[in-house]
């Protein structure tokens, strides 16, 4: 797995794993910014309008990522942190293409 040190994702053979820090119950769903976690790892901040109740925030996160990155919802899976603000989200597809879409979407180099 590879990534640039400030990118909040790690590329693998057929997917990317994206580190996300969510803020549920926001006024609107949107990308916040890249952030550094306490342990020094980068993550992408995302505000979600949905509350963290009955999976609503996770469903909104999946739908938001799918729409923003041109993926099917079935190509997105929360692999850790389902009940946490810190999540690891798997995006299935060509890693180079996904990395380019992510970089364009969040405005990285």
UniProtKB/TrEMBL annotation:
InterPro entries: DUF167 (IPR003746), YggU-like_sf (IPR036591). It comes from the Bacteria. SUPFAM superfamilies: YggU-like. Belongs to the UPF0235 family. It comes from Sphingomonas tabacisoli. This is UPF0235 protein ACFSCW_11595. The lineage of its organism: Bacteria, Pseudomonadati, Pseudomonadota, Alphaproteobacteria, Sphingomonadales. SMART domains: DUF167.
């Amino acid at each position: 797995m590879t990534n640039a040190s400030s990118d909040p994702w790690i590329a693998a053979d057929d997917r990317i794993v994206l580190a996300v820090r969510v803020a549920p119950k926001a006024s609107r769903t949107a990308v916040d910014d890249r952030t550094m976690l306490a342990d020094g790892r980068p993550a992408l901040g995302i505000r979600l309008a949905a509350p963290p109740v009955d999976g609503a925030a996770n469903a909104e996160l999946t739908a938001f990522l799918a729409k923003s990155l041109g993926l099917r919802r079935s190509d997105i899976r929360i692999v850790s942190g389902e009940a946490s603000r810190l999540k690891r989200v798997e995006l299935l597809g060509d890693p180079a293409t996904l990395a380019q879409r992510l970089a364009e979407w969040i405005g990285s180099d």
